[in-house]
Amino acid sequence: STRKESSAASDVYKRQAQQQTANKTIVIANQISKTLQEQLPKPVAVTPTLSEAEIENSMVVYDFNHLKVKNVLADMKIKSIQNNIIFRLLPKNSNFIIGSDSAVQRGSITHFN
Fold first, then answer.
1. What contacts 19, CB < 8 A, 6 or more positions away?
2. How confident is the model over 3-32, as pLDDT tens digits?
3. Largest CA distance in the chain
């Protein structure tokens, strides 16, 4: 049993370590700056509400000026079972988004004005 669990965990890390790419971006916010929108994978959709829609091969940006941490974590847990989902966080009152595509590699910061 432990061997199977170890193998399953190893598979997850291997999958997470692979370079992920997004074919579109979903920003959960009331609005976003034009400079941020220009830096995100196209097309970019901005929506004020969390959705359980299928979003494989997408980047999801959560705006903490608009959302509660508890709700974001619950949504990330649901979406994380889909394939090739990239999560980014926009902290309150900031001009950057943060996130990591891997459990084993350092994350990234994307600045905008």
1. 101
2. 555 555 445 444 444 456 889 999 999 999
3. 51
